[in-house]
Design goal:
The chain is α+β, with helices and mostly antiparallel strands. It has helices at residues 2-19, 23-26, 30-52, 68-80, 86-106, 131-134, 140-160, 165-168, 182-185, 211-224, 231-256, 263-282, 308-318, 321-325, 345-361, 370-373, 400-426, 431-436, 548-559, 561-575, and strands at residues 387-388, 391-392, 445-446, 450-455, 458-470, 478-481, 483-484, 492-502, 505-507, 520-525, 529-532, 538-539, 543-545. Among the domains are: 2-60 and 131-171 and 285-317, no CATH class; 62-128, no CATH class; 400-575, no CATH class. The strands form three sheets. Strands 4, 5, 6, 8, 9, 10, 11, 12 and 13 form a nine-stranded antiparallel sheet that branches. It has a two-stranded antiparallel sheet with strand order 1-2. Strands 3-7 form a two-stranded antiparallel sheet.
Length: 577
């Protein structure tokens, strides 16, 4: 599996280089690529270490080579003292050992569907673990055979994407390599249009919190609440506060009342653990070696016989119990025992607190339940007044959503002013059409529309595949939308590229990806979307054909390619200020 992942990532990177795509924009981030490489190489290293450098028969348990056990220790310590010091931790070690031993002997994880599932540790759950199989390591010849089959499977995955794997390994040209010129040493950074969007793509992580932290937050909210309350409400909140303190005191009492282990008891405890390990090793089942012709248990796989059912089956076979049961669904999982779990005392206090605070503040969220299910149109926050098939998107209710839409509209107007200044300064042709890209209230930009776009390789025609609009805030996300009545309200546009061929014909397979016989796709900022084409687009066997008016506008813009290039340089320089 890890070799297949390695070969697939190599093929992905080779395709980007072969097709001329930017590795920065269309590959894994540098950090994610490093993590994948470390995981793959680390797993292979563990196999060699356990096989060649460990004398005893020890099973390879990859989940023990993670930080989960350390996180478990700190999690249990925070349950005793939330912000503990080094001295507190030293005093807690005997109690922590008892807690960890209890969890390991229990040998099962907590509810996978529980809130804050990140605090649910599963490294001690041995359900369905075959220790004998994990204690059997392949030879060098078996690893070599597995590598060959992994390469074939990676090629099959690449072929499913419409790419011929052999073309990725073919040299681009037969020309004799020469030394690079002096100009390569000092590249002109303004010649290529590169958009550094790392700052805009900083997603804010949603931190999961435990019940204790959630209850403490409710206590803080109740203390800071300045809304007028009746005597009955004050008394109810006071009772809930006392109940919360009682729960915390009860837990602290239980921890402090734990029996301290003496040296004799500790030795007896260790002897029992060693005895359990020895019994497990002696009761291992007989060794079952797979056939050498099928090192992965699947045999030879061809392009014609491979489909996604095999991949789904392999994923389900190798997923953990936590992954299988940790997904929330509308139906009850068959793995459960059918009994509803009784909520803890702290959870009951939290629910009562939330009900009391809701009654005081009289707030209720809108747009939930069935209302969210039937929603099918979602316009850009800064361009919601577009008319599609005679209908406008409904008004937003007052509150945070409406305020965010107003703020997004202001940002869109600022972006429109910036777009106007850039194109006006560069004196581009067809200025009046380019300023708004012909995107208006009566003709909003929608998915599947066609337009004239500017790329690093010149003017092209693109079909809109996806539209993104940035949400509010410093760490706003680029959310997918269905339409926008302002081009400046759009942050990015994903398009399929069509290259000019002859007359009014544009081909779907451009020259850049012609050697691979694949289509080309780009993700461009909205300033590169220049002109929204009309609805008279004729699809042909080769690609598409424009009508006479749109073709005339394309040629006019093509004559001003240098001015458009200058405008993109201005946009790039201004974006770095």
């Amino acid at each position: 599996m890890v070799l297949r992942a390695r070969y697939f990532l190599d093929a992905w990177e080779a395709f980007l280089g072969r097709a001329g795509y930017s590795r920065t924009h269309y590959y894994l981030s540098r950090e994610a690529a490093d993590i994948a490489r470390i995981v793959i190489e680390g797993f292979l290293a563990l196999v060699y270490i356990h096989r060649d450098h460990v004398s005893d028969l020890i099973a390879l348990l990859p989940w023990f080579h993670s930080s989960e056990a350390c996180e478990h220790v700190f999690g249990e310590a925070r349950r005793i003292v939330k912000d503990f010091t080094m001295l507190d931790f030293i005093y807690m070690i005997p109690n922590l050992r008892i807690k960890l031993r209890e969890a390991i002997l229990h040998a099962t994880s907590s509810d996978p569907k529980a809130r804050a599932a990140g605090y649910s540790h599963t490294y001690f759950d041995n359900t369905g673990v075959d220790m004998m199989t994990l204690s059997t390591y392949p030879t060098d010849d078996e690893i070599k055979d597995a590598a060959e089959h992994a390469a074939q499977e990676a090629d099959s995955l690449v072929a499913l994407l419409g790419i011929v794997p052999s073309q990725l390994r073919r040299p681009k040209s037969n020309a004799v390599p020469t030394l690079p010129g002096i100009s390569v040493w000092f590249p002109n950074t303004d010649s290529d249009i590169a958009y550094d969007d790392n700052e805009e793509l900083d997603y804010a992580d949603d931190d999961s919190i435990s019940e204790a932290q959630q209850l403490q937050s409710l206590l803080d909210a109740e203390e800071d609440c300045s809304v007028f309350r009746t005597r009955k409400q004050d008394q109810e909140l006071l009772n809930l506060t006392c109940a919360a303190l009682a729960v915390t005191a009860d837990e602290a009492t239980k921890v402090n009342s734990m029996t301290k282990l003496h040296d004799e008891e500790m030795e007896e405890l260790l002897a029992g653990e060693y005895s359990q390990v020895r019994d497990v090793v002696n009761n291992l089942p007989a060794l079952k070696i797979q056939e050498t012709a099928k090192p992965l248990g699947r045999g030879m796989v061809t392009f014609e016989s491979l489909d996604f059912n095999m991949l789904i089956k392999m994923r389900r076979e190798h997923q953990t119990r936590q992954a299988a049961l940790g997904v929330r669904t509308k139906q009850t999982s068959d793995a459960g025992d059918g009994k509803a779990e009784k909520p803890s005392i702290r959870r009951q206090v939290i629910r009562k607190f939330e009900e009391a605070l809701k009654e005081v503040q009289d707030e209720r969220a809108v747009g939930t339940g069935s209302e969210r299910v039937i929603r099918w149109r979602h316009s850009a926050p800064g361009g919601r007044d577009g008319e599609i098939e005679g209908e406008h998107e409904g008004l937003l209710p007052a509150g945070n959503t409406a305020n965010a839409a107003v703020a997004a509209a202001a940002v869109a107007k600022t972006a429109a002013t910036r777009r106007k200044n850039v194109f006006t300064t560069a004196r581009v042709p067809c200025l009046q059409d380019i300023l708004d890209a012909r995107v208006t209230t009566f003709r909003p930009l929608q998915v599947h529309d066609y337009g004239i776009i500017y790329t690093d390789n010149g003017l092209r025609v693109g079909q809109v595949i996806v539209v993104y609009s940035k949400t509010g805030g410093k760490n706003g996300k680029h959310a997918s939308v269905t339409d926008s009545s302002m081009i400046s309200a759009v942050s990015y546009v994903g398009l399929q590229v069509f290259e000019f061929a002859y007359a009014r014909e544009f081909r779907a397979i451009p020259e850049m990806t012609a050697s691979l016989q694949t289509k080309q796709f780009v993700l461009l900022p909205s300033i590169c979307f220049l002109y929204l084409l009309g609805s008279k687009i004729s699809l042909t066997a080769m690609g598409l054909e424009l009508d006479a008016d749109d073709m005339a506008r394309f040629r006019e813009l093509e004559k001003g390619a240098e001015k458009l290039k200058e405008a993109m340089k201005l946009f790039k320089k201004r974006s770095k200020e």
